[in-house]
UniProtKB/TrEMBL annotation:
PANTHER family xrefs: 3-HYDROXY-5-PHOSPHONOOXYPENTANE-2,4-DIONE THIOLASE, FRUCTOSE-BISPHOSPHATE ALDOLASE CLASS 1
Lineage: Bacteria, Bacillati, Bacillota, Bacilli, Bacillales
Molecular-function GO term, any one: fructose-bisphosphate aldolase activity
SMART domains linked: DeoC (SM01133)
Annotated source species: Paenibacillus tyrfis
Record's protein name: Aldolase
Length: 287
């Protein structure tokens, strides 16, 4: 089955997408729950701000269609659960697919499924497990016309940074992104590199597959906005941000600020203006 109808729901006519990730509760870490303790409320807040997509786990996805205004927003279904995000790694590592992932995505009317391609220092077995997950999903996605978003993540050692553990070395990011493309990704969700001005190299190595850039850990407003402006100028097709939206004091305002960058080409000052105008609750125009 063709994937184009679902991709058209995921991306704007200009080929841009902002996906707000609210799937953090899947990973069994207390710090990830900040801002999403009440999931229905968190989802409703983001729905009001009007991003292209919301990324959820199978256990929380049922909230989305019950919220007014959600029909214009696509569901990206997280398909794998992992135990790698703590300060110290456990004795046994896993990244496990949920049962019949793509069938569940079809039942939930998702626009895409998302799966990790993890690369942790000295953990080749985990990487191998992720490669198998991606390959298995690729086959099922083709049956049902479901776009496959692969999330190639190059991580630092847990004892160095803990939590998200992003390694911004572009020479590690590029080959993992390319491996995701070679495995059949329809969309890439990748980390930014340390020197954002070099990110066009990641876009190039993705070989025409749209790249959505991951937000990672919480950052200051000015930093996340400036980085997003630069990434879009480097050729990114959009962003997938979670904690920088849901843990923000004004998540709706931050969503609107980022949407203005992704879809309207706003600069830093224009985007930050959305955050200073806390009384404005008007929705972002439909895209």
């Amino acid at each position: 089955m063709p994937i184009k109808p679902r991709l058209q729901r995921m991306f704007s006519e200009q080929g841009k997408c902002f996906d707000v990730a609210i799937d953090h509760g899947f990973f069994n870490e207390i710090s990830f729950l900040s801002g999403i303790e009440n999931m229905r409320q968190a989802i409703a807040t983001i729905v009001e701000a009007g991003p292209n997509c919301i990324q959820l786990s199978v256990g929380q996805a049922a909230h989305l269609p019950s919220i007014p205004g959600s029909r214009r927003i696509g569901l990206v279904l997280r398909t794998d659960v992992a135990n790698i995000y703590g300060q110290a790694l456990p004795r046994y590592l896993f990244s496990e697919l949920i049962d019949r992932s793509v069938e569940q995505a079809v039942r939930l009317d998702a626009v895409a499924v998302c799966v990790n391609l993890l690369l942790l220092p000295n953990q080749p077995e985990l990487h191998y497990q992720c490669v198998k997950n991606v390959a298995a999903l690729r086959t099922e996605c083709e049956k049902y016309g479901m776009p496959l978003m692969v999330e190639p993540l190059v991580m630092l050692a847990n004892e160095v940074k803990g939590g998200y553990m992003v390694d911004g070395d572009i020479n590690k990011i590029m080959p993992l992104v390319r491996q995701a493309v070679e495995l059949g990704a329809d969309v890439i969700k990748a980390d930014p590199c340390d020197d954002v001005e070099q990110y066009h190299r990641v876009i190039e190595v993705a070989s025409g597959i749209p790249v959505l850039v991951r937000g990672g850990g919480r950052a200051a407003d000015e930093e996340i906005v400036s980085r997003t402006v630069q990434l879009m100028r480097q050729g990114a097709s959009g962003i997938v941000y979670g904690r920088n939206v849901i843990q923000h004091a004004n998540p709706a305002g931050m969503t609107k600020a980022l949407m203005s960058i992704v879809h309207d080409g706003a600069d830093e000052a224009q985007a930050l203006a959305w955050l200073s105008n806390t009384d404005d609750i008007s929705p972002v125009r439909e895209r």
